[in-house]
Amino acid sequence: MESHPALGGLLVVGPWLLFAVGYPLFSASITSLSVTAAAAAQVDNVKPHYFGGLPDLQASSGAGVRLSAVRPDSPAARAGLQAGDVIVKLGASVIRTADDLSAALRSERPGQPLEVVYIRQGVEHHAQTILQGRR
Known about the structure:
This protein is an alpha+beta fold. Helix content is 16%, strand content 35%.
């Protein structure tokens, strides 16, 4: 993130983001800004490590992240995860939202064993996997 004095405030630039705080936009001012962890990672050029579980963003309950799909031969698939599973913990991080999952993936080191705790059909399961670094 950077501040640009000519625009009068904070400027956040990402592949699809461009906001200025305090800059008049069609006779209105943007007074607040919420940036997700995924967008912040894009801005900071820090990408989460590859996991291969695709979160179902429509099923957000705040009690874990439901997977809509799991890519074949991914770390998530090797852990035994399936579409419909709800991730509640990754390593030492409690997972409540997709932002929590993204932050947890960024904080872990690729190539190291990682415990995944998930719920499938109401039963808690524990599995191990190894994250891959992004290329």
